[in-house]
Amino acid sequence: MGFSYYWSPERQRKWSEEKLLRYVKSHILTYHPFYRNKCREMGIGAGDLRSYEDFRKFPLVTKADLVQDHLAFILQPAFPGRKPLYENIAPISKKDLLKYACRAIRRPLLPGATGEDRTLKKRIEAEARREWFPIHFHASGGTTGNPSPAVYTHHDIFNVTPKIVVMSSWCGIKSDQKMLNLFPAAPHLAFFQVVFSQLLMAGHVFHTCGGSVIPTERQIQICENLGFDNLVAIPSYLTYWLEVAEKMRKKGDIKKIDTIKFAVVSGEPMVPAYRDRIKSQFAAIGSDNVKIIEGYGMTELKGAFYECAEGSGIHLNTEHYFWEVLDPETKKPVPEGHEGVLTFSHIDFRGTVLIRYYTGDLIKGVVWNKCEHCGHTGPRLLTPLCRAVKDFTKIKGSRVNLLDLQTAIRSTAGVESFHVVITKEKADDPFSRDWVRVHVVKKADATEESIVPAMKKNVKLDCEISPSEIVFNAPEEVERMLFARTNLKADWIVDERQVHA
Fold this sequence. Notes:
Helices cover about 35% and strands about 20% of the residues. The protein is globular. By secondary structure, the chain is α/β, with parallel strands linked by helices.
């Protein structure tokens, strides 16, 4: 019997835990290089995993582990005639080989298939590739050459992802509505989750690919002309987009945009004041009663999740994820509804698989009950989202490791010293776009013209954001900035943004 979001919380928890333990035994301990080796070192075998308490013996992992060797986090059974990338990986089971043979016999030949591709052996190999061979990945590259990609196989995209993206319809968005995607085209989940949703749910989406591809003013004209029902964006960019649209309406460049019903936003906390601000901006361009739906996701998660109604809490998928909320100090589970760090484990994915991934996102808590808005039962992430713990922050909707930001700037050729200020584009408007100003002391033999593009490239690769402003200062000026707060320790990065209230 398949999973149901109408089951009781107790039944869902038990089902999810049992499926997780079966998956760990059948796939993680056999085909996952990182966890297979870790469990051998720790003396953990399949017979030792009978409950959640046993599962907690698994080590917590972070992005640092993934960056160190991302290939070790990809499921990769050993196939006959192929040398595995890692030693001690179990061979593909005979049961699976038989499964591929049966599928190959049943699946019609593609038109145009000729020669060797028509043989049963090649068709069996093709079936195996559908389950295990990477066909897509998102990655934040990095100047160090160590990407941290989330790898998808055909199985992930067509067997698992549909059960995730269908949950986005719980808020009332329908596939026959037209959506405008304002996320920039980049190799991260925010953009590709919309692409996957469009293709798997037969949605009608226009991808702007960001303001650097289609100017904001042109996006607004397209929105007016085509009459989109929904928008998806980072909140701060949406605020800017609506501000531009209001100015265009006042100037007579557009008449009005009165078709918008939903705005799906993610990447920044959506507190009531922020939500009210965006609603008033929509009203100013002609769209009243727009619902602001908050989402949560990250590249490593391989999925994104949403509210079903404003303030409902973000519905999490239990069929393909096992969720934990851990105390940031003790790393032990906190009671339901209490603050802690969100931690997840993939279930039934291929490609990149993470078990007990410690996100670093400090949340208000997760409750597991029947939702009063949509009637579905399941875990809901309480909103607004809090913050990232220590050394992480959200900038322009991206989760940024502050050490990575420092490294990207420091490793730029020609940089002697620096100081970073994270603020708002408009100091008196806490809901305006994030603004990253980098103060730089250049080396004597370097030029400003060479440093600026190199730094922008490094920061974009490592952190998926771009500096808003790069200012060159004298050494004594930057030194004064670094030690303005204390004479003992340099503040390489200062966050001056106000907390939304």
